[in-house]
Amino acid sequence: MKKVIVLGGGGFIGGHLAKRLKQDGNYVRICDIKNHEYFDHREICHEFILGDLTDPKTVELVIGEGFDEVYQLAADMGGAGYIFTGQNDANVMHNSALINLNVAKEAVVKKVKKVFYSSSACIYPENNQLDPDNPNCEESSAYPANPDSEYGWEKLFSERLYLAFSRNFKLNVRVARFHNIFGPQGTWRGGKEKAPAAMLRKAAETPDGGEFEVWGDGQQTRSFLFVEECVEAVLSLMESEFVGPVNIGSEEKVTINQLAQMAIDISGKNITIKNIYGEEFIQKYGFKCPTGVRGRNSDNRLFRKELGWEVSAPLAEGMAKTFDWISVVSGAEQPAYV
After folding, report:
1. Which residues form the signal peptide (predicted)?
2. pTM > 0.90: yes or no
3. What does the DSSP 8-state code read for residue 330?
């Protein structure tokens, strides 16, 4: 039985990952600044430490002797309303960088056998993602660097941090760039939710014949990966000898309006999409519409080559599962129609 630590296990992806690691027979310790909102601790770990990983003393306590693997998913992050308005840039960079500086050092001191770091597709250059139909997110395109957000810059710095610790201190690392992971037991309201959760919540709560807002013109493109697929890919990477960085995402690209329509179709309702941007958005919300890059889609060729991993289910299947869950927790309970 391996002894593993999931940092950020009180969050969405970390909670699902910890649950799977525990189910697979590993001893699991979690540390997060918050409790998991939807998972009972006993379901996902053997130990849950409530602590602030920006504090080096907390990291020293959490990363104990004799642990085989550390999964580092802790970060200050959220959806477009949190990352792209510019209002949280200092906290995003400061808090996440401190966490990674602390973790990298302590993992070397405690002789952890292997460390996984969750980076992000937000590291890719903005200029490679101007065409919604032809974005370039191949791993080798990350440089010359030009992320479109401070979140992306911090992720890129931390990739280099872990790889430098690998070169200089023989820290055995794996680095993956996540592309828009979604699913049940995640944030679905309050401003930190990702686009699939936001669309599904709106579809669940909007009455038949109503309308809901989509930020931007809706023609920006993205790909979205169901959380269980993400966990499979992370475990495959950790079991391999491939270091990365490597994309973990889906290549099923959709426009944001198509994503919204998918949520509406799943709800079985007749709902109209209202795109809001420009001056109308500023007048309503007080800041520019945060839409991110025009196009982003995972390029999985490197993962296929090195590990043979493929996404197993279409986007609509994961969206339907997530709709059912959001319908229950939001109080708008109804079945999915796909």
Report:
1. none
2. yes
3. T
